[in-house]
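Supplementary Methods. Inverse-folding protocol.

Structures were first reduced to a C-alpha cell string of length 115. This string, shown here, constituted the complete conditioning input.
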C-alpha cells in the first residue's frame, strides 16, 4: 500500500499500486493491455515499462506516473489510482475524475498508425 514519506513529502507506491494504477487506465483495443494504455488527459499511448516515480525528473515522452482518480477523497488505495502520462500532470479539470474515467473506459481506443 502507498504511503506518504513525510521527510520528502512524496507518496511512495509499491508494486501492487503500480499494477492497480495500470489496470485502472483506459485500454487500447488493438494493442496488448499489458504493454500499452491510453492517457486520459492527452489521449496518447503510454508504455508500461516507462514508469517514472517522480514526474518532475527527465523522462521519455511516453512515460507514465500514478495519479489519484478522486482528489476529494484522497485515499491511497488501489481503486483510487490510475496511470497518466508523466507530462500530463496539471491537466486535470476536476477534482473527481470517476465519471470521466468510466466514459473513457467505454470508448474504443486505437493505437496511432505510423506512416
Amino acid at each position: 500500500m502507498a504511503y506518504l514519506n513525510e521527510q520528502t513529502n512524496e507518496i511512495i507506491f509499491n508494486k501492487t499500486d503500480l499494477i492497480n494504477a495500470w489496470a485502472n487506465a483506459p485500454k487500447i483495443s488493438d494493442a496488448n493491455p499489458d504493454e500499452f494504455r491510453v492517457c486520459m488527459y492527452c489521449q496518447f499511448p503510454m508504455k508500461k515499462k516507462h514508469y517514472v516515480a517522480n514526474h518532475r525528473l527527465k523522462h521519455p515522452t511516453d512515460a507514465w506516473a500514478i495519479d489519484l482518480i478522486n482528489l476529494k477523497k484522497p485515499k491511497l488505495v488501489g481503486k483510487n489510482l490510475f496511470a497518466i502520462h508523466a507530462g500530463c500532470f496539471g491537466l486535470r479539470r476536476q477534482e473527481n475524475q470517476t465519471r470521466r474515467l468510466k466514459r473513457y473506459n467505454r470508448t474504443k481506443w486505437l493505437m496511432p498508425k505510423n506512416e
